[in-house]
Amino acid sequence: MKDIMNAVKISEKVYWVGAIDWNIRDFHGYTTKRGSTYNAYLVTSEKPTLIDTVKAPFRGEMMARIASVMDPGDIKIIVSNHTEMDHTGALPETIKEVNPEQVFASQAGVKALEEHFTFDREITPVKDGDRINLGNASLTCFETRMLHWPDSMMTYLAEDRLLFSQDGFGMHLASSERFDDEIDPAILEYEAATYFANILLPYSPLILKLLDRLYGLNLPIDVIAPDHGPIWRKDVKGIVESYRRWAVQAPSKKAVVIYATMWRSTELMALALAEGLSGRGIPVKVMSLDVNHRSDVAYEVLDAGILAAGAPTLNNNMFPSMADVLTYLKGLRPQNLIGAAFGSYGWSGESVKQVEAALADMKVELPGEPVKAKNVPGAEELGRCRDLGALLGDRLLEKLE
Ligand code: FEO
Fold first, then answer.
1. Counting atoms of ligand 1 from 1, which one is nearest the CA of 85?
2. Does 184 lie in the same domain as 114?
């Protein structure tokens, strides 16, 4: 790979030396339609420093990119900002090959790294506010616990006004371009929001605290270098503002109707409910779980004010694809939703109660009565679905006033 894979200079002292994973389509349950990148960075300071590594199979690509700038054996320091294996899979072998003087991680990071791997040396713990001396530069450490692992930290290179933000401000997007200003803004917005919805949403309160802290410190930041996707150099302010907006989880005038269906009965109910919402002027996204992945639903729910969910009963339970999505959404802890349950059944009909309980468990406000239809919904049941949609729409409009 040497002479083919090159590093990309991203600031005075820093090169991107990561890897592009064009083909990954499932990232622990999150569908990554556009692949991803594992970003590692080489700081060419007096003490050359590697920030994070890559997923294990991509180590050769990272080493080739480093070798395009310097002999990897000259690296003196490695910093691990986040223990998840897409950034540390290559770490043990890299340490062996490079033989750095020191390897740093947060205190929780040291523990987590040692629980994941076997190292031939001690990892040095750093704590919030510590400075790592790179000779003619330094890295300031910001612990960002639970964003999104207990070990997570960010590091700031004041000399280049650059924040290494690990997963924060990242996205799953494989591309030959490395910077935000080289990529269609609509793709950036979609993939950054999808990443936030699927990875960071549960930690929204911590994100708001982190943003307040960064603003309070008044750090000049020209570049945000995340561990996935493009590097922010044009719209640093824009992505930070988007994070604040998403983390606040203020509902917008939008409804998401998700449904599973066996013989189209629940689908007809979903369509009737969507008609009721539209009649109140609420834009609706109708999503069959046959063709929409759980991570697509998470993306749509991010800025929605309404989540209605419908499932038929199969063997005394809600249809499995709905159980999958509701379990996933519950873990993401969306806030401020209004919702309703509906569904069809043949004889026992447990699903609607189960869906409603799952929504209640997610703290979704449920202002109306759920609608059940035996076998095939008739005009009466479809009318009730339409009325339920209108009721949800009215409640959302009242809330948004
Ligand atoms: Fe990209 Fe949390 O790992």
1. 3
2. yes
For residues 42-49, average pLDDT: 98
163-186 pLDDT, tens digit each:
999 999 999 999 999 999 999 999
Give per-residue pLDDT as tens, 190-201: 999 999 999 999
| 148 in catalytic set | yes
84 lines ligand 1 (CB under 6 A): yes
Residues 158 and 293 in one domain: no
Active site residue 167: yes
Among residues 88, 86, 38, the alpha carbon closest in space to that of 61 is found at 38
Q: Give residue-wise pLDDT tens across range 270-314.
A: 999 999 999 999 999 999 999 999 999 999 999 999 999 999 999
User: Do 126 and 146 lie in a common domain?
Assistant: yes
Q: Compute the average pLDDT of residues 47-51.
A: 98
Q: Which domain holds residue 387?
A: 255-393
The one-letter amino acid at 23: N
CA 71–ligand 1 middle distance (angstroms) = 27
Mean pLDDT, range 156-164, rounded to an integer: 98
* Catalytic residue list contains 228: yes
CA distance 315 to 244: 43
Q: Is 87 in the pocket of ligand 1 (CB under 6 A)?
A: yes
Query: Cα–Cα distance between 174 and 167 in angstroms, integer?
Result: 15
Ligand 1 atom at minimal distance to the Cα of residue 228? 1
Share of the chain above pLDDT 90, in %: 98
Same domain, 349 and 372: yes
Among candidate residues 227, 248, 269, the one where a domain is terminated:
248
Are 292 and 177 part of one and the same domain?
Answer: no
3 assigned to some structural domain: no
CATH number at residue 388: 3.40.50.360
| Ligand 1 within 6 A of CB of 52 | no
Quick one: CA torsion of 135, 79, 154, 55, rounded to 10 degrees? 140
**309-339: buried (b, 16+ CB within 10 Å) or exposed (e) per residue?**
bbbbbbeeebbebbbbbbebbeebebeebbb
Considering the domain architecture, whether residues 242 and 329 belong to the same structural domain is answered as no
Kindly give the residue spans of alpha helices, DSSP state H, lying in 253-378: 265-279, 294-301, 320-332, 351-361
87 catalytic residue (yes or no) = no
Which CATH number covers residue 56?
3.60.15.10
Helix 294-301 vs helix 320-332: crossing angle, to nearest 10: 50
Domain boundary among 194, 224, 248: 248
